[in-house]
Amino acid sequence: MSVDSPFRHQILRFWKHGLLASALMLPLGNTCLAQTESADCKPLEALQPPQANTTDPHKPFYIDTSGLSGAGAMPVHDPHNPLYPKATDLPDSTLPPVGKTGNYILGPTHSLPPEWQKIPPAQGRLISFTLTSSSTSGYNPGTTRDEPEPCAIGMKNVSTSQPGDPSILNVPAAHPAPWTRTVDIYVPPNMPANRPLPFLIFGDGGNNGIYPGRDLFALVDRMIEEHHIPPMVVIGVGSGGGDAQGSERGREYDTMSGDYADWVETHILPLVEQKANVILSHNPEERATMGFSSSGAAAFAMAWFRPNLYHRVLAYSPSLVNQQWPHNPALPGGGWQLHSPWAGAPQAVSPEPGAALIPAAPRAPLHIWYEVGDQDLFYPVRPMPDGMHDWVLAGENLARVLGDKGYDYQFVFSRNAQHIDGPTIEQTLPEALEWLWQARTGP
């Protein structure tokens, strides 16, 4: 049966009506949103948080504002900032070569590549099911955060950072709550039977998904047919709801551990096999994670902390910043510490447990494609001037670390692009999927 995809309709609904922006605290018209409004919903004038250390790099929690310009909700980052590793400028509307690794800078025009032209609707099977928190569901009870009125997403209005340590966010409005989520399974046509199948699993799927592009399932059909990627199952897992610290979504995606990967392995994949009547591969080379913003951080965590389960990672605007909540003193910088030391001490003397994880560890057998936009998020929660909430700097720091360690990776910096930028995703996703699934068997 062909799929006039509910998933496609959901994508268009979020993108056209601005729900994507509100879900991620993005600026949109006159809506009262956490990044751009004060407690009484009046626009904020400054881009950096109050009481931020922007002058002395030798003191803790330093925020470097060099290379930033522009007005609006987010500053514009210069891709040739000397803080960043060297990258190759691409001609406008040109994509990175599929066979190459390294750092690339996209031009400002985000044209649709040929894979999207005259693409037919998805032709495979779409199976959806719903999960509700229970004693056997995992992540029980869930977490939610009450918001003040009239601002619907007033994170900064219900939170304060720890005195003397802005890397710790106190969220008194957070409390236990049940959750409900949807899981979508897409099985392309003519899939091989009676053998384990590769799969791509992504967060922020289901009814509350935020993927801001065209029909992913139809694209997968076409790329399989043209032998750019192997036949595979695609699994979209809904989050537990909310956003950022004090929410179930933030708890699941921003926690830097193997917990989410273990939850997926125990509570999601067996149901996928049962309901879709498929066998999923246990070979980590045939398993890929994908995500957007915080679910992009989860995609990294699934592979980094469980390389026995996943080797391939694809992420747009991943939140490789200090979003982990509740605070974990064993990893005080959260996702920031994948690539950089905790910012609470000068980096040259940062001790354990504040050291960066990837630089200190042997190279893992991972294949990584990810992107940030030049207008990506910059300190969206104003009570946290912690030196660890610049999404672009996080992506650039990770690129340096991956390059120094000899990882198999491709990093894309997109000009004229905001957080999880829809035009950039549509432009790059075919190349990203093809790059990700090349037949590489090691780092």
Automatic annotation (TrEMBL):
It comes from the Bacteria. Residues 1-34 form the signal peptide. It holds the Pfam family Esterase. InterPro entries: AB_hydrolase_fold, Esterase-like, Mycobacterial_A85_antigen. Keywords: Signal. The keyword Amino-acid biosynthesis does not apply. This is Esterase family protein. It comes from Bombella pluederhausensis.
